[in-house]
Amino acid sequence: MRKTKAKKIPLAPDARYNDIQVTRFVNNLMWQGKKNTSYTIFYDAIERVAKTTGENGYEVWKRALSNVTPAVEVRSRRIGGATFQIPAEVRAERKISLSMKWLIKYSRERNGRSMAEKLANEIVSAAKGEGAAFKKKEDTHRMAEANKAFAHFRV
After folding, report:
1. Which of 6, 88, 107, 137 could form a disulfide linkage to 122, CB 3.0–4.6 angstroms apart?
2. What percentage of the chain's residues is helix, strand, coil (to nearest 5)?
3. Contact assessment for residue 124 and residue 132, using Cβ atoms and an 8 Å cutoff
């Protein structure tokens, strides 16, 4: 390695739940540096989740994240002129990152009035084991299972 690795700057936990995961989620949700707007969207979505499910919205969000978190993924590897999809374990940091990005991406693609409403609906469906983000995880696992024959190419 030629250069030193960049230091990971520790994130400050959010004010309401005192959780670093919430800050990470809000940072992924944020557009154009508007962090206050994304905090408002997130907290509003959590309140909507609590209202629709009758449970603690924060706990439902945690459950949704864990339901969407992938365990394996496929990575492309070129061997002898052919490209193989090789199943590989997902690093802990990447697991969290992928689950958050999928939740946000598929909530943006949903139908609804506001982003908070769309995010709340995606969180509720992910917590139940439904929705597009959960389907993405299932598809990723299915692809890894289908390519298990190439697992011996792993580095």
Report:
1. 107
2. 60, 10, 30
3. no
Look up the CATH number of the domain holding residue 132: 1.10.455.10
DSSP state of 7: P
Range of the domain at 134: 20-153
Does any domain span residue 14? no
- Look at residue 11 and tell me if it is in a domain: no
Quote the number of domains for the chain: 1
* Predicted model pTM: 0.91
Rounded-to-integer distance, Cα 71 and Cα 53, Å? 27
Contact 107, 126 (CB under 8 A): no
Q: Is residue 7 part of a domain?
A: no
Q: Euclidean distance between the first and final Cα of the chain, in Å?
A: 19
